[in-house]
Amino acid sequence: MANLMEAKTQQQFEDFLAKAGKCLTVVHFQAAWAPQCEAMNDVMAELAKEHAHTTFVKLEAEAVPEVSEKYEIASVPTFIFFKGGEKVDRLDGANAPELTKKVQRLAVTGSPGGAAQSSTTDLNQRLKKLINAAPCMLFMKGSSQEPRCGFSRQIVALLKEHNIQFSSFDILSDEEVRQGLKTYSNWPTYPQLYANGELVGGLDIVKELADTGELENTCPKAVTLEHRLKTIINQSPVMLFMKGNKEAARCGFSRQTLEILNETGVDYDTFDILQDEEVRQGLKAYSNWPTYPQLYVKGELIGGLDILKELKESGELVSTLKGES
Questions:
Q1: Of all residues in the chain, what percent are helix, strand and coil, respectively (each to 5)?
Q2: d(C-alpha 156, C-alpha 324), whole Å
């Protein structure tokens, strides 16, 4: 198919973008080891038949690290959408209906009213879901661990200072959310803080609430998330928090961790942090461990992939998993 390509170098990737001009280019950051990427390539091949003016590019994420780093690819599959050489949207994960929807929406420039209306409705539903993803939700530049602007840094510091438990969404990772939320909430700037699905406001308002002592009453108490995390951690004697699940790891570190655990023959359960932003952010703070995967035995944190490798080499892994050491 003339519009389905593979980019093996940064130069090839840039050439494809340049050649596509203002037409849509969809780049699939994939990995040969991930079966879900293969499945999404089949979806892409079907879409390529329907959208002759859209360029579809497969790119092995680990083989072209400079491109993957630039677009902050944390797991596979990830799709980045380009127009005129600029990123206009992204999709994380193997979600065929969402990929189809985004291609249909973005491939039509100046779409007629009906299509535009329907895509606005879809976006509003998605925004509502994100706003309600946690009792206290912060839309910011960067993450709570690494804010990417001064205002975001200040609001994170304020929330932490007042022991407010919150989840965050990085608006720099999703242009559709970044632009859509301004209209949805009629609030033109970031960061934006929401409590129980309602807009609280930006940095100035949060500062005022902190000064008057009302911030703790406005935002739900921290205990709820802590209780939830404890419950999930103790769901199984051996609990792995990872990107993806037992059947389909969504990053190399998670995949390697599964391989090590599977070799031991010890039963374990997994939790996909990509499906739950509240747990993903909250667990880092709860355990004071900033990366994933994270392994717990009988409610206690063991560590990540490096620790598992060390335990395996020293012959202590099975006894640790059985809670004998």
A1: 50, 20, 30
A2: 40
The SS3 assignment for 112 reads coil
Confidence of residue 1 (pLDDT cuts 50, 70, 90): low
In this prediction, residue 120 has a pLDDT band, given cuts at 50, 70 and 90, of low
The residue with tokens 């998993």 is 321
Name the residue with tokens 């661990």.
145
Q: How far apart are CA 306 and CA 320, in angstroms?
A: 15
State both tokens at 153: 């840094």
Condensed to tens digits (0 to 9), the pLDDT of residues 37-86 reads 999 999 999 899 888 889 999 999 999 999 999 999 988 999 999 988 88
List strands edge to edge, sheet with 4-7: 4-7, 55-60, 25-30, 78-83, 86-92
Residue 307 scores a pLDDT above 70: yes
The separation between the first and the last C-alpha atoms of the chain, rounded to the nearest angstrom, is 57
Let me know: does 95 contact 44? Beta carbons within 8 Å. no
Integer Cα distance of 21 and 45 in angstroms = 21
Per-residue pLDDT tens for 248-280?
898 999 999 999 999 999 999 999 998 888 899
At 232, which amino acid appears? I
Cβ–Cβ under 8 Å, residues 77 and 10: no
Q: How many helices (H) and strands (E) does the chain have?
A: 14, 13
Q: Which residues contact residue 244 at a Cβ distance below 8 angstroms, ignoring those fewer than 6 apart?
A: 75, 250, 251, 254, 272, 274
Long-range contacts of 162-165 (CB under 8 A, 24+ apart): 162/210, 162/215, 162/216, 163/216, 163/222, 164/136, 164/215, 164/216, 164/219, 164/222, 165/135, 165/136, 165/219, 165/220, 165/221, 165/222, 165/224, 165/225, 165/226, 165/282
The residue whose two tokens read 């930006």 is 202
Which residue's entry shows tokens 């009988």?
298
Both tokens of 49, joined, read 């038949």
